[in-house]
Design a protein that fits this description.
This protein is mostly helical. The protein contains 9 helices and 2 strands. It is elongated and about 65 Å long.
Length: 224
């Protein structure tokens, strides 16, 4: 992981030294660079999430209708997944691919001196990148986390625990952002904003709208 974080540090130095960007802008440019590299995995992840959003109401109905018959319930749920070509675990692998980048960037920005990145007294948008306890950054972090989660969460058929998680997670991550160095918080906010933009673009241009055949299958399942 240190080697990977060192590679991130080298790219960060290229933005700062070769392009003349401030360390704050270099962090944002590095975040954009990583998001571009991971764009294919984002397409796969968001496609899977959008598929789950479409079938969630159908699955909820099946669970209610066959709650006393677990075997039939499972069979019909699997039929819905098959008909709509949805893999309930389809978003897991893309997330696992993204984790090393997240850990490496966290290691780099939380301890930049270890990788010969001097952020001491570096001010960006009023933030000292080596200091913490910035409420404004924490609030923006929580708000962007909430918006990102809201975009990827089904609008119907949610369990109460999922609704609770939707509100608790942004508060938790906002607190974490408040506790960590502003450089890490800046990366997280930039990552959230870029992910939101990517999600809108992918949903609009890379995921086909529901076809008449799919609507027919959905109506058929509802009548069962």
């Amino acid at each position: 992981m240190d080697f990977f974080a060192g590679l991130m540090a080298d790219i960060l130095r290229v933005f700062h030294n070769n392009l003349g960007a401030s360390w704050g802008w270099s962090i944002i440019l590095l975040t954009i660079f990583i998001k571009i590299i991971l764009f294919p995995t984002s397409i796969s992840q968001i496609r899977s999430m959008e598929g789950m959003k479409k079938v969630t109401p159908l699955i909820k109905e099946i669970q209610e209708k066959y709650k006393k018959n677990p075997e039939e319930q499972q069979r019909r749920v699997m039929e819905v997944y098959k008909q709509h070509k949805v893999n309930p675990f389809g978003s897991c692998l893309p997330m696992l691919i993204q984790l090393p980048f997240l850990y490496a960037l966290f290691a780099l920005l939380n301890n930049p001196d270890k990788f010969q990145i001097d952020l001491a007294n570096e001010i960006f948008l009023g933030l000292n990148l080596t200091q913490n306890n910035y409420w404004a950054l924490a609030v923006i972090s929580g708000a962007t986390t909430f918006l990102q989660s809201k975009l990827s969460t089904p609008t119907s058929g949610q369990e109460s625990s999922q609704n609770t998680f939707l509100y608790i997670m942004p508060v938790f991550l906002g607190y974490i952002t408040f506790s960590l160095k502003a450089g890490v918080g800046l990366y997280w906010v930039a990552s959230n904003v870029i992910q939101i933009i990517q999600q809108v673009i992918i949903t609009r241009f890379f995921i086909p709208s529901e076809t008449p055949g799919q609507k027919k299958e959905a109506n058929k399942e509802k009548r069962k």
